[in-house]
Amino acid sequence: MIKFVFVVICFLLSIRSKEKLLIIAMFFTVIADYCMVLKGWNNLGLLFFWAVQLTYNERFGNPAKFILIAAVFAALAFNKLSAGYLVCVLCSVVGSFRNFKNYLAPIGMLLFLLCDINVALANIFDYPVFWRLIWVFYLPSQLLLAFSSVHKRNVQNV
Question: Are 14 and 6 spatial neighbours (Cβ–Cβ below 8 Å)?
Fold first, then answer.
């Protein structure tokens, strides 16, 4: 429950940025975490994480429509929602490094990816260390992403 509250706080911090796409992505993150962490609705949560990553793709200048098509094909080809999500998150990470003006968003997206790698490893191998590492990477990623727009705005105003 404390981890979920942290994600809600990050969403509330993102509202200060007044950046529409960041706020939408963080809102979808709260819904996804609610589904997965509090309710155990993993497939529904994963679909909301698709929405998170597609929103971040738009934010970073990637064409989310084409990424969605690629993600759906990957999910259908491998018969796994997670395969489609992988397409979305990888494009978000690349887009954040290529198209963002500060270091908070790319580092946040890289930590998000490391979290997702640990989610996959935890589900494959079920070692406690992977379950712990998920949160070690996830919580800082959310904080950095929540502040990425505020930092961007402050740098441009100097």
Answer: no
